[in-house]
Specification:
Keywords: Membrane, Transmembrane, Transmembrane helix. It is a single-pass membrane protein. Its main location: membrane. Pfam families: LEA_2 (PF03168). It is a single chain. The protein is of the alpha+beta class. The protein has 3 helices and 10 strands, in the order H-H-E-E-E-E-E-E-E-H-E-E-E. The strands form 2 sheets. Strands 3, 4, 5, 6, 8, 9 and 10 form a 7-stranded antiparallel β-sheet that branches. The longest helix is centred in the first third of the chain and has 34 residues, at about 60-90. The radius of gyration is 53 Å and the shape is elongated. The chain starts with 13 loop residues before the first helix and ends with a strand.
């Protein structure tokens, strides 16, 4: 019996039979157009913007409040201007006029203690030229006569009402006393001898109320400053006023 030849199948490793493949390019590299490995760059990263919550709009609220306030103030100014314009067209206000017509000195002498006693009677003419406006002269007025910064005498105007187109003549008594008046009296005498006149300043501060038709407005104050040039300050003599000028000023 012939020997049977046994044939055993041989399994050949396919992977061992194939030649090993060598990578053409190293890992993590790219190939350029010329075939050379390109330089490696890290992968690009996108930055995602972070959304923050918006704070409350406080600034816009403040701006709105400021705009409203300015608008109201502007509107109020416009309304006041319109009302003032209407009142001006209706009443046609004019400033009152004042003048010092006469100055009489009843006392002006130096006593033994070097004090100067003075007493003046000042005649003032007040004219209201308005047709529809009256003037209430309230209490608390003050009138004074000065010479180069020294007050000689003072007094007050009476309380009265001056109607439309009215002229009122007031005789106001003023009294005063100045201590250590030797130098003052010498200065007055030199001024009279050198220039023939003595400059005096008369100042008036008077609170008044204006009446527009039947409407009585709030109390305001005005001041009057008059420059007087007199020939002398001798007592019981006729004093001549060589020159006089007055300025009127209203103070709210």
């Amino acid at each position: 019996m012939a020997d049977q030849q046994k044939i055993h199948p041989v399994t050949q490793d396919v992977e061992a039979a194939q030649p090993p493949t060598v990578p053409l390019m190293p890992r993590n590299s790219s190939k350029s157009d010329k075939g050379d490995p390109a330089e490696h760059f890290p992968p690009l990263k996108r930055t995602i913007p972070v959304m923050h919550s918006k704070p409350p709009k406080r600034r816009s609220c403040c701006c709105r409040c400021l705009c409203w306030t300015l608008s109201l103030v502007l509107l109020l100014i416009v309304i006041i201007g319109i009302v003032a314009g209407i009142l001006y067209l209706v009443f046609r206000p004019k400033l009152p006029d004042y003048s010092v017509d006469k100055l009489q000195i009843t006392q002006f002498n130096l006593s033994g203690d070097s004090s100067l006693s003075a007493a003046f009677d000042v005649t003032i003419t007040a004219t209201n030229p308005n047709k529809k406006i009256g003037i209430y002269y309230e209490g608390g007025s003050h009138i004074s006569v000065w010479y180069t910064g020294t007050k000689l005498c003072e007094g007050s105007l009476p309380k009265f009402y001056q109607g439309h187109k009215n002229t009122t003549v007031l005789i106001v008594p003023l009294t005063g006393q100045t201590q250590d008046a030797n130098g003052l009296l010498t200065s007055l005498q030199q001024q009279q001898q050198e220039n023939g006149i003595i400059p005096l300043n008369l100042r008036v501060k008077q609170p008044v109320r204006i009446k527009l038709g039947k409407l009585k407005l709030m109390k305001v104050k005005f001041s009057v400053k008059c420059r007087l040039d007199v020939d002398s300050l001798s007592a019981n003599n006729a004093i001549s006023i060589r020159n006089s000028s007055c300025k009127f000023r209203l103070r709210l």
